[in-house]
Amino acid sequence: xxxxxxxxxxxxxxxxxxxxxxxxxxxxxxxxxxxxxxxxxxxxxxxxxxxxxxxxxxxxxxxxxxxxxxxxxxxxxxxxxxxxxxxxxxxxxxxxxxxxxxxxxxxxxxxxxxxxxxxxxxxxxxxxxxxxxxxxxxxxxxxxxxxxxxxxxxxxxxxxxxxxxxxxxxxxxxxxxxxxxxxxxxxxxxxxxxxxxxxxxxxxxxxxxxxxxxxxxxxxxxxxxxxxxxxxxxxxxxxxxxxxxxxxxxxxxxxxxxxxxxxxxxxxxxxxxxxxxxxxxxxxxxxxxxxxxxxxxxxxxxxxxxxxxxxxxxxxxxxxxxxxxxxxxxxxxxxxxxxxxxxxxxxxxxxxxxxxxxxxxxxxxxxxxxxxxxxxxxxxxxxxxxxxxxxxxxxxxxxxxxxxxxxxxxxxxxxxxxxxxxxxxxxxxxxxxxxxxxxxxxxxxxxxxxxxxxxxxxx
Length: 459
Known about the structure:
The chain has about 450 residues and is of the alpha/beta class. It has helices at about 25-30, 50-60, 75-85, 100-110, 160-170, 225-235, 245-280, 290-295, 315-320, 345-360, 385-390, 430-440, and strands at about 65-70, 90-95, 110-115, 145-150, 175, 200-205, 215-220, 285, 300-305, 330, 335-340, 395, 410-415, 440-445, 455.
């Protein structure tokens, strides 16, 4: 006699036992596994503490002091992390390749971003990680340093060196490790951020591992971030009706990884390397890996740089989609494909062969690179994201907004990194980049998808 309203009653009913209950044909398979935490997996008072026990087991498995399960993805994790690490009106160093949820965390926490920028590869125009040298000259009252590693294209920062730099100035290192859940089960150079000294780490469970969509965790080492402060931030952003099904998929993933993770990751890395070798043999294709760019790359990402083939990543992605295969991201110069531990060698070699065939089908003369503006942007921050959130605004024609301050954000998705954020000055280059991104793919979170108008701060 309580929620959820469907009450899981369809699970014991079969066609042929009489009239079908309402919605059986549309809802039966969807709600079959939908179990709430409160009054489902546990009683209304969480007497058995299953969630807390599962979180403690995950923390122990990855070497964290404290872990919280999330059912609103790494977006919730980033918001909670910045609520825990930032202070209202105080500066916080944030990697500009961060997901737009970092902006949401800044808007809610009141932290004032001091943007730090990744090094860009001189040939490929791709971010290759945040270097400790880029953190020189930060304000003395900085509250934390927040970076993204792995980046969307798979490149990784040297987290251990960044943690040492942060600790030298007495602040925590926050890492958005959304794309690197498997790294928590690896060792040495590719080990996860917690193992390399980070203080607060956000990790998706559904991207490279096997959790339900929307599942993620946020973990603290316990040194610079008080677990109770993290709890308050998570509880503030968490639904009061969490799905036990989603939470259980995080716990089950942990159990599977403890039993089989090392072997599964080794097989997946070996299969990925084989696929990369096949693609590396295609004339003109550059495979972005450790050796090619001279820095660490996620071993389960396949990122190709394409200008020397004359083919665009968008062409390849469209052709793959027509055959039923999606990719993580594609632009003019590159394409990004994610591998997980469920992908075997035969499948990855088949995919590599398919991609190679598409490249040959569309091959033309080599062309000059057209690096995406996303990784090149150096914003002119006029007011903080929080100030922009609450400031009066007005709508103007996009072309008339040059020189004014944006009240909204324009986020190519994927990867979900802002081109223009609230509180930043609009420039001609940004307007052109936004329109180009809209022609190539999807630009989200803006109020006018035609890009004819924009909301700016009313002066």
